[in-house]
Design brief:
2 helices, about 0% strand, rod-shaped
């Protein structure tokens, strides 16, 4: 494997890990924010949870793309060939 190919592979893996770290942080923030707001205003808590969920799902989509990028970088031609969305 050439140095350039190895650098691309490592870069793809790093991006995938960054996305997963963001997902973990957003999940933690979502739980914390919901707990804080539920003590004050149920409607506000519901809106905050909905917004956090939308953002979390977007990051989840990015994580799947990062996984696909990592699989391609590892030499697999058909990443997620068995993946079926819910």
């Amino acid at each position: 494997m050439s140095l350039d190919a190895e650098m691309k592979r490592l870069s793809a893996i790093a991006r995938a890990h960054e996305v997963y770290d963001c997902l973990d942080r957003i999940g933690s923030l979502r739980r914390h924010l919901t707990a804080l707001l539920s003590n004050h205003d149920a409607a506000l808590a519901g809106n905050a949870k909905r917004d956090c969920n939308a953002f979390w799902h977007r990051l989840d989509e990015l994580a799947l793309r990062a996984d696909a990028t990592r699989e391609v970088a590892a030499g697999h031609e058909r990443p997620f060939k068995d993946y079926k969305p819910e």
